[in-house]
Amino acid sequence: MAKDTIRFPRVGIHVSAAGGVDLAPARAREIGCEGFQIFSSSPRQWRQSALDPARAKAMLAHRKEWSLGPLAIHCSYLINLAAADAVIQQRSRMALRGELERARALEAEFLVLHPGVVGGQSESEAGADAASPAAPAGERAAAVQRLLEGIAAAAQGFDWGPVNLLIENTAGGSRLAGDFRELRQILDGLAGLPAAACLDTCHCWVAGYDWSTPERYAQFMQTLEHDLGGKRVRLWHANDTQSGLASRLDRHWHIGEGKLGDAAFRSLLQDPRWSQTAFLAETPVDAPGDEARNVAALKRLRTTA
């Protein structure tokens, strides 16, 4: 992909790859995306779709023609490499390997992985939009170790190419990495792999991180730098939220129309520290035009006072 020549973040949204991955770039371009995210297979089925090499080649050609990047691929919601259940653990390792191989075939810059839920369930089965209690420290430590071992097993012998594995922060509770310090611990355990962080704005807020005013934003950045390290953040998922601060309820909403509002997004999008870091939305599609409207909102907030 062509290098970014603008001085503010590239923005985009998750788009459908229904009918073939080669159709996704045109959808992204039509709604004003500069970068975009897709699922490479169904996110709610263990059975994974094979990637058509011809369609993968066509997607690469479209991305190059229209200078669309970065491309992020979001892993299946079923994957839970923190699971204690042996069956889910094995299925998750196989599913992650498939995600890695499809991301490599599509020359995606990023593959985004939820770190998982403490316990035996897949994340999807645990209820991704429900508040959950915090797990005991010992159980969390064991879950982190299972996650690290699962990623290492899935990635054994893998040719990474341009692909970077991004561990996404979560809403917290029984989900790993709701706390930046735990996310840092996970990334430290992946030393030697091209691994970094994806931060979701909704997840940050509902996990208890507040940057709703300029003063709180400054403190938020200090906490982020101290507990995680800003240079480890390679991608932002830009999502407003219907849920309250520290609620642990993962409910995305339209940019600027939720609890975060314009000011919080403006602080992030206009911060020079993130000028070369993409912001990709995962907002609801409730009516025709919602995707384009949310992309437009991000473009507006990155430049207006």
Runs with pLDDT <50, length 5+?
1-6
Q: How much beta, percentage-wise?
A: 5-15%
Largest sheet: 8 strands, parallel, barrel
Oligomer designation: single chain
The global form is globular
**What class do helices, strands and sheet pairing give?**
alpha/beta
What's the tally of helices? 10
Total number of strands? 10
Distance between the termini: 31 Å
> How many discrete structural domains?
1
Whole-number mean pLDDT:
93
What is the level-2 CATH architecture name? Alpha-Beta Barrel
- Work out the helicity level: 25-40%
The side-by-side strand order for the widest beta sheet comes to 1-2-3-4-5-6-7-10
- The CATH topology assignment is TIM Barrel
Spell out the CATH superfamily: Divalent-metal-dependent TIM barrel enzymes
In angstroms, what is the radius of gyration? 18 Å
CATH class: Alpha Beta
SSE topology string: EHEHEHEHHEHEHHEEEHEH
What is the compact description of this entry?
The chain has helices at 24-30, 53-66, 86-105, 123-126, 137-154, 180-189, 201-206, 214-227, 261-269, 290-301; strands spanning 11-14, 35-38, 71-74, 110-113, 164-168, 195-200, 233-238, 240-241, 252-253, 278-281.
Describe this structure in words.
The chain has 305 residues and is of the alpha/beta class. It has one domain: Divalent-metal-dependent TIM barrel enzymes (TIM Barrel), CATH 3.20.20. Helix content is 37%, strand content 13%. It has ten helices and ten strands. The protein has helices at residues 24-30, 53-66, 86-105, 123-126, 137-154, 180-189, 201-206, 214-227, 261-269, 290-301; strands at residues 11-14, 35-38, 71-74, 110-113, 164-168, 195-200, 233-238, 240-241, 252-253, 278-281. The chain has an eight-stranded parallel β-barrel, surrounded by four helices. It has a two-stranded antiparallel sheet with strand order 8-9. Helix 3 crosses helix 5. The longest helix is centred in the first third of the chain and has 20 residues, at 86-105. Residues 1-6 have low confidence and may be disordered.
